[in-house]
Amino acid sequence: MLHQCEGTIFRICYLFSDRCSESISDLYQEIAYNLWMHYPEFRGQSAENTWVYRVALNTVRQLYRKRRKVPVFVQFDPEAFENYVDDSSNSLLERLYELIDRLSPKEKELIFLYLDGVPIKEITTLTKCSKPTVMRKLSNIKQLLIQFNQNDEQ
Question: Does CATH number 3.40.50 belong to domain 1-89?
């Protein structure tokens, strides 16, 4: 499951870190640890990738709250990381990440799920919000990103 959902995990690590390979690796380790520890609780009531999203985003939330590190290690493959991060050389994508960095952690979660193509129904499940609430929040986030971009251009 870890291997199948590696792309999702790397994208979460990339978005919720300072994009330094050490920070990404640390966050990847923490997410892998939590996936390993909570795997017995996986009941198969959702898709594996949805469960991985949930665990990974909860890990990010927990780290934001506690700012702690757990010394658990999973082999980190730098080549796999490069496959997912190579797209960042695109200046437009890098600009989007710069704008997203200004959002709150909860706003980052929502826009990440949306940009990653997660269906709204799954987003509502992951965030425990109603569909109208998710749609309104996404609209507000998009407007914030537009506003950030316009303010930077002036």
Answer: no
Taking the C-alpha atoms of residue 89 and residue 107, their distance in angstroms, rounded to an integer, is 24
Residue type for position 58: N
Instruction: Label residue 71 by pLDDT band (50, 70, 90).
Output: very low
Helix axes 105-115, 6-15, angle to 10 degrees: 140
* Class of domain 90-154 as given by CATH: mainly alpha
Domain ranges across the chain: 1-89, 90-154
Q: Report how far residue 126's alpha carbon sits from residue 56's, in angstroms, rounded to the nearest whole number.
A: 11
> What is the spatial distance between Cα 119 and Cα 67, in angstroms, rounded to a whole number?
30
CA distances (Å), origin 82, targets 10, 14, 46, 65, 77: 10, 11, 29, 29, 9
Question: For 34-53, what is each residue's pLDDT tens digit?
Answer: 999 999 989 888 888 889 99
- Which helix H or strand E contains 37, and what residues bound it? helix 21-38
- The structure's pTM equals 0.59
Q: Are the beta carbons of 63 and 29 closer than 8 angstroms?
A: no
